[in-house]
């Protein structure tokens, strides 16, 4: 229970009786001299709420459930409101008025500052919104050369055009390193490398740092193969473009083996030039890996399981992921087995 005693508010434990027993000591008290009191509606949804701004910037909120039912509360609130323009029930008369006025002025300043917080936030949000909407689009900045795409996450066609190469330099660099010292590594492309080292390699590639794959920090070939798989996974559009995925799935369903291979070959040669060239280099490399399967234990089927979802996927249809995975693996395995016939320039079909 709260009781107004002179210049202070005294807080007593709640009792069944409405009045405090004589001699009871309050749990705590608050000196109200120099404070400001005002009704407030924005601080609470409850009725009859006012706030008291104390000398040391503490805020006290008092709530009275029903003023009409409790005249004592009403008198207390009335006294507090009346005191907002003068010292609260100051009976001493000995204190200097100027310090009290300065304290009240500082309290008023604090209250005004609090009330302006919400409007200030709105102004900041409005300015940020205008700033964001006025920013030029990423594509515009890239066209002007102000922002350059990184290697990882860059569109294949854009990357090849930027590097003036048919196959991304990083892909060729990884392939050369694996064929130089990792074709017989157990579980090549299936075993994961250290992710922290892979991310370090990615950072250097994205920032166009000079890369030496013979450096001791890249001695684990699984780090190189892990980075190469990450490169293909993070392409905005997979090596087999989205608009070709369903055509490849339809081709792999063909019952006649020769017709199936012929259909897949036509689809491969119909791909955009960067995709076609990168696929040719990549599958010829994977064929060499399979040729060392007695040492590395990576058969054509094992490679297909690893690279099926990495090199091709549906753009929107995620409900049939399990079914698609079967087709992805079958397509990669067929291209791998028929690699020489599919990518032989002499067998190139007219487009």
Automatic annotation (TrEMBL):
CDD domains: RhoGAP_ARHGAP27_15_12_9. The keyword Heme does not apply. Keywords: GTPase activation. GO terms for cellular component: cytoplasm. InterPro entries: PH-like_dom_sf, Rho-GAP, Rho_GTPase_activation_prot, RhoGAP_dom. One of its GO terms (biological process) is signal transduction. Residues 154-343 form the Rho-GAP domain. GO terms for molecular function: GTPase activator activity. This is Rho-GAP domain-containing protein. It comes from Callorhinchus milii. The lineage of its organism: Eukaryota, Metazoa, Chordata, Craniata, Vertebrata.
């Amino acid at each position: 229970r709260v009781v107004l005693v002179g210049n202070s508010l005294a807080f007593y434990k709640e009792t069944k009786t409405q009045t405090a027993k004589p001699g009871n000591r309050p749990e705590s008290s608050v000196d109200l001299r120099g404070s400001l009191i005002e009704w407030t509606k924005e601080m609470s949804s409850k009725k009859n709420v006012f706030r008291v701004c104390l000398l040391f910037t503490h805020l006290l909120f008092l709530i009275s459930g029903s003023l009409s039912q409790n005249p004592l509360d009403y008198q207390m609130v009335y006294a507090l409101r009346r005191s907002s323009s003068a010292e609260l029930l100051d009976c001493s008369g000995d204190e200097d008025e100027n310090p009290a006025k300065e304290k009240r002025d500082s309290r008023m300043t604090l209250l005004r500052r609090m009330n302006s917080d919400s409007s200030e936030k709105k102004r900041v949000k409005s300015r940020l919104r205008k700033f964001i909407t006025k920013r030029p689009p990423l594509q515009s900045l890239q066209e002007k050369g102000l922002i350059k795409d990184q290697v990882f996450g860059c569109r294949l066609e854009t990357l090849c055009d930027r590097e003036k190469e048919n196959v991304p330099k990083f892909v060729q660099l990884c392939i050369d390193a694996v064929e130089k010292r990792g074709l017989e590594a157990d579980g090549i492309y299936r075993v994961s490398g250290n992710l922290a080292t892979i991310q370090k390699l990615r950072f250097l590639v994205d920032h166009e740092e000079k890369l030496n794959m013979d450096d001791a920090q890249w001695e684990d070939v699984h780090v190189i193969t892990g980075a190469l798989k990450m490169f293909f996974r993070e392409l905005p559009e997979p090596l087999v473009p989205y608009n070709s995925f369903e055509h490849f799935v339809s081709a792999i369903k063909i019952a006649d083996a020769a017709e199936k291979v012929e259909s897949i070959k036509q689809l491969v040669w119909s791909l955009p030039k960067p995709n076609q060239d990168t696929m040719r280099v990549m599958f010829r490399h994977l064929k060499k890996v399979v040729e060392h399967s007695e040492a590395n234990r990576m058969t054509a089927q094992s490679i297909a399981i690893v690279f099926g979802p990495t090199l091709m996927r549906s753009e929107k249809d995620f409900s049939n992921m399990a079914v698609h995975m079967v087709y992805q693996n079958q397509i990669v395995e067929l291209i791998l087995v028929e690699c020489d016939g599919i990518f032989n320039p002499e067998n190139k079909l007219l487009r």
